[in-house]
Amino acid sequence: MKRRIATMVCAVAAMFIICPALSAQVSEKDHIEVVGRAEKKVKPDEIILNIVIDESDIQRNRTLNNLEKKIVDKLKQLDIDVQKDFVVNDLSSNLQKYLLKKDDNLMRKEYELTTSSAQQAAQVMIALGELGVSKITVSSVNCSNIEEQRREVSIMAIKDAKARATELTAAIGQEIGKAIYIYEVEYGYARQNTRMMKNALILEESALEDTYISNLDFEDIIVEGRVNVRFELK
Question: Which H or E element spans position 50?
């Protein structure tokens, strides 16, 4: 029994001695390490609008709830799925105010609306402006398939790394072998300014023209990727 334990101890000790040696051997292999980079511009297709209505938006003998119904009707006319894309923000505080007042004349309501383009966002602003709603801002600009775009950019980045390594080694008469180390840097994406071209969110008389609306757009989202790759040298 003692002899078996002694043998196991020796085996474990040998592993501790051999493993660092193997690790050092791998790390000391002739190699080249490069950084691959890539970026891609994508069109935003999720423009999130923040809409606020309060007592300043209602006329005499009207309530916020009545105005809300008119807003919903307007959005439906613009072929917006209000069940999916139109939600109430800060429901808890609104509910508290409702319970305190015991009627439907809430002091304030806040909503979040998802639109698919700058043109649709502008159409919403104009339509709600006709109802007297003026407190509309762009809260964010996103891309619905951003994860797919990130994966594509990462693939572009690793191809760029291979091309760089191939070019550098060819300059000294060598070739690269297989990749022995790959590290993807979390680069994410950079959202551009959440503004519409020309007058940003200010709706002027010219904004009522169809030609003006068709020219509105948001800046592209830039998706960036970076990959560190180590290749063996043949």
Answer: strand 46-54
